[in-house]
Amino acid sequence: MGIYDFTVKTNKGVEKNLGDYKGKVLLIVNTASKCGFTPQFKELQELYKTYKDRGLEILGFPCNQFAGQEPGSNDEVQTFCRANYGVTFQIFEKGDVRGETAQPLFKYLTEQKKFEGFDENHPIATKLVEALKQNFPEYLEGDGIKWNFTKFLVDKEGNVVARFEPTTNPASIAKDIEALL
Amino acid sequence: MVKLYGVEGCGWCQKTKKYLDSKGVAYEVHDVELNAEDAAACEKLTGDTAVPVLTVDDKNYVLGFDKAKIDALLGL
Questions:
Q1: A3-68+80-180, superfamily in CATH?
Q2: A80 → closest Cβ in B32, B33, B63
Q3: A90 strand-pairing partners
Q4: Which residue ranges in chain A fall short of pLDDT 50?
Q5: Among A78, B7, B24, B35, which residue has the least CB neighbours within 10 Å?
Q6: Residues of A with CB below 8 A from B50's CB?
Q7: Domain boundaries in chain A?
C-alpha cells in the first residue's frame, strides 16, 4: 500500500485518486475547517504560489476534531478568522484525521512518519501543549495527529519523507520542498 | 449601507454581528465562502483573506472584531 493507492474526495465531492499526483512533490496538511491556527493558511498559499509551477501540490484536508480549542498566542491576539477561502490549492472533503474514525490516508501518513515532538521554540508550543493537556490529554500520546496544520511532505516517487508539526511554520519548510523539486 | 464580509461558523463574525445588533446598526452580510465576487472584493479591499471585515465606503475598513475601531468607523 502506497500513497498513490488512496482515493479521496474533493470539497466539491469529486473522487480523486492520489495516483494522479505521481511525479509531483506533495505537502499534505490537515487544515482547520473554519477558524483555526489562522496564519498558516496564508503561508501555505504563499508556498503554493511560489512552487506550484515547479511541481508542488498542496493538499488540504479540513478537520473539525480540534475545533474550538485554538491555543492562540500571547503576542498575537487574534480577532479574526482566516478560513479555507482565498486559497487556490486543493481542499478536500471534511473528515477525521485521528483516532478510530481517521481517514485511511491519515492512518497511513502517521504510520509512515511518527511524532517526534513539537518545536518548543515556536511561540504557540507551550500554549498548545497546555491546551492539549487540559482538553485532550490522550492526543499527546502516540503518533496520531496532534493538532491542525500537521504537514507531511511526499517526494516525487510517493515516499513520505518528512512530518512537520503545527509548531513548524509553512514558510520554514520551503528549503525542504526545494530539495525535492 | 454597512457591509459585513464574513463566513459561517466564524466566531468573530458572530461577535461583530451581535455588537452591531446591540447598537442598532443595519448591515448586509456578504459570505465570502459562498460568493466568489464577495471574496474577491474583500481581498481587494484588505489585501488579506481574513474576516470579519466591516466597511461603509469600500475604502475604509475594520478587519477583525475590534470595538474601538468599529466605533470609529461607524461614528458610534
A1: Glutaredoxin (3.40.30.10)
A2: B63
A3: A59
A4: 69-77
A5: B24
A6: 38, 80-82
A7: 3-68+80-180
